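USER: Write out one fold?

ASSISTANT:
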Amino acid sequence: MPEPETLRPHQVVRRKAQAFIAESWQSQTNLAFFLALQIMLGLILPSLGFGKSDEQLYGDIGLSLMLISGVAIAWGRRWLFLLAGFFCSAAIAIRWIAFFTPTPKLLVWSAGWSLAAIAVLVLVLLAEVFRPGPVTSMRLQGAIAVYLLFGAGWAHAYHLTAFLIPGSFQSPPGSLATVADWFYYSFVTLTTLGYGDITPVHQVARTLAVAEALTGQLYLAITIARLVAMEVVSWQSKANNNSE
């Protein structure tokens, strides 16, 4: 039999460090950071006044940070990591090109690629939430992050629709002037609150609104049912192991 490889102390330390870094991408800390970043950029900082003076710059920086953090979650799954890296890198690049040269065509491409990148991140997070194993706080954080990504993705879809089809939404004067207004409308629709201050009037806008409302309700029902089933299976597995 071949003799086991003898490693020097510095090689052992290096391998342990590499293993720790690789595991940390999939750890609870990374998902918690991603969720905290979403809450900070989407809720806390805007309420404190960040982004009001230069909303486009704030939005581009915030989305870039969120996409980079989201790609890191897929580190342990090669094909998901490559897929997320491609879409998120392209979205970031096109978004910053559109920032410096804001032509109508580039703005449409920027919104479209950002929407595609968010959809890929939803896939990455769902793969983590529903992977085999017991239900942990990491899964719950991932499920919440997916819900918030739904709101961000639909906000981009509405913004893109309003840009391509002027007059597709009816609102009071001054509304829908900023990206924050689209996020507000998106989350109001996702949670089916429906205050009525912003109304979709074009068929495409109405279809998107209905689709988002259904997405919000079905996602909550399916996710809760799936997590409960996974927890029951985990309990049964532990009980069977203890009885042996």
